[in-house]
Amino acid sequence: MLDLNDVAIFVQVVRCGSFAEAARRLGVPPNTLSRRVQQLEAQLGTRLMQRSTRHLTLTSAGQVFLERCSGAVEGLMDAGEELLAVNQEPSGLVRVAAPADFFDFFAMEWLTEFLAAHPKVRVDFVLSDGRADLIADRIDVALRGGILEDSSLFARKVLDAGNDGLVASPAYVARQGVPDTLQDLAGHDCLVFSHPSGKATWRVTGPDGAQAEVQVAGRFSGNTAQALRKAALAGLGIALLPSTLTQRDLRAGLLVPVLPQYHRQGHGVHMVYPSRRYLPLAVSAFMDLVIGKMGAMQELPPQTCG
């Protein structure tokens, strides 16, 4: 098989008119170029050019070979230049896998700003609560919460592993009162993840660092944290939710902490991607956007319930 580098060198030498000029443009010694052309001639079994110290001329075989391969070489060179341009400015398609309710907490306005700043970038979201196969689904980056299980993927942290806390709406607290102890939750409407029984066991850490648990139940359950958050905002009960999900609501007074001395350790949120070699600038820029915007959510101080 022909070495494409040797073919490209041959075309460059012919266009420059001499090995010396081609060597100057390519930044390599002239004898290196001469040796590579000789290797190409040996592979083809024919002489491509007649050369002297000052001039070179193509043989008939060399002329035919040049006509056949110069277009392909130019195409490769153009492709290389385009790739260099791509690597200097974010461009192209970024496919993102995220939870189904991603845009409930990631403001669409942030994406508007991102696309305005990078006019050559397109973003395609694959929203599902299932875990996408990054390779099979051609996903550039995926957002995942909890413990990272696939060690073959690379990851960047989006949100720290903060604590889950108990929250309720002011309307619920005004109607049902504030529980005084953890076990009092058994007598309240609690918002739990979907289960046929409508019940759940909440295991939390108390003020002394000891683990405690309570059996809770309620008339509303759902299969996403965002659904439970919305139910809490609507006054349907008390929820145990990640602080990153409720912090803005707490700051705005839409939710209030319940039994704030108890918490559950969270696992944080990461962006995972299949390879960090030659990571496209568009993907890297999108990742920076998510980290910058969502990371700022952790810096908002919540209100407390008196």
TrEMBL record:
Domain HTH lysR-type: 2-59
Annotated family: Belongs to the LysR transcriptional regulatory family.
PROSITE patterns per record: HTH_LYSR
CDD domains xrefs: PBP2_CrgA_like
Protein known as: LysR family transcriptional regulator
SUPFAM superfamilies: Periplasmic binding protein-like II, Winged helix' DNA-binding domain
The keyword Transcription belongs to this UniProt entry's keyword annotation: yes
